[in-house]
Known about the structure:
Blueprint: E1 8-10, E2 20-25, H1 28-58, H2 60-68, H3 70-97, E3 101-107, E4 110-117, E5 120-127, E6 133-141, E7 144-152, E8 160-165, H4 170-180, E9 200-203, E10 218-221
Antiparallel strand pairs: 1-2, 2-3, 3-4, 4-5, 6-7, 7-8, 9-10
Helix pairs in contact: 1-2, 1-3
Amino acid sequence: MRLAHFDDISPSLIDTPLPWRQSQTCSMLPRVLALAGLAAVALLLVVPLAVIVHHVATAPAGLAALANHPAATFQIALGLAVSSALLGFPFYRMAQRIGVTRRVAIEAGSVTVTDQGLAGDHTWSEPLSSYTGIAHHVRTTQAGPRHELVLVHPDPRRHVTVAVAGRISKTELERAAATLAMVEVPAHLLYRLPRLPSLTIRPAATPAHSSRGAEGLAAVEV
């Protein structure tokens, strides 16, 4: 789940020593309204299509026309599939976010996160040392500027927000970094893509008496 989905983080622990234990929640009303709006748009598109499909399916002439024009039939089916995906995927993602609560625990050199929602609980953990640093991120929302302190991980799915406020000062950022024993990093690292596995090519071992040591087989390691 993306960081922006969590609107409230409590308690605020910037000025307290470890361990940190927080509860992060999503605002319900905006997501319910968005879900209702998307459902209304889906109905406006699906109902007319359902009427047309029913008419074609019950009319012999319509079925014959589809059978005689396979290319057009394929285009219609493809359009229906793409439309369903474009509406269904956002609907599914929005429904997943409703009622989700994230529990964050930072202690003993580790970060443990548990997401609790309608789809069940999901827990993962990372060593605190695996994080690149802490970033001060500012985003614009309908309610105004939103300041965040985010633990930055090489894997974007492992970023963790630890503080949210209308304003976070440089002093607060430095205190949080000192408590976590982390360096400050730029916020643009939050938007980098996951790293792909790198390939390292090394020469295969060859007998000492071989005159073709540099021409031996190569082994590839991930």
